[in-house]
Amino acid sequence: MLEQGAYVEHGTSRTGRWLRARRLRVALWIAVVEGVLVVFHVISWPIAIILAVAIIALYFSAGNRLRSDAARQIGWIAAVSQALVALVPVLVIVVGTLALIAVAAIAVVALILLLSDRG
Fold first, then answer.
1. Whole-number pLDDT of residue 119
2. Mean of pLDDT values over 23-47
3. What burial class does residue 88 get, using C-beta atoms within 10 Å of its C-beta: 0-12 exposed, 13-18 middle, 19+ buried?
4. How far is residue 61's CA from residue 46's CA, in Å, rounded to a whole number?
5. How many structural domains are present in the chain?
6. d(CA 85, CA 75)
């Protein structure tokens, strides 16, 4: 039952409205799970990127023409989760680079301390 003052958008379904209310959360969880699989090499990152590009392209080419509200919401969830997964290899590179910089900085500090020791 709808609350007083609530309205139902034309062309929506109960499932579509439920998905729309939770679509970002669902997309984030899908991206997290798939991202972990990419990071631990269960899914290779080139395959993940190709799949992400294909799903996003499919959403932009056909997503708005879907008649079913639930199908449109599922398409949006799939496209957003894949866009987020496409960022995982970039994030791994950035974090890895920052870790290497941190290790290099610690090594330089250690070298300076060791060379300045007069003992």
1. 65
2. 91
3. buried
4. 22
5. 2
6. 15
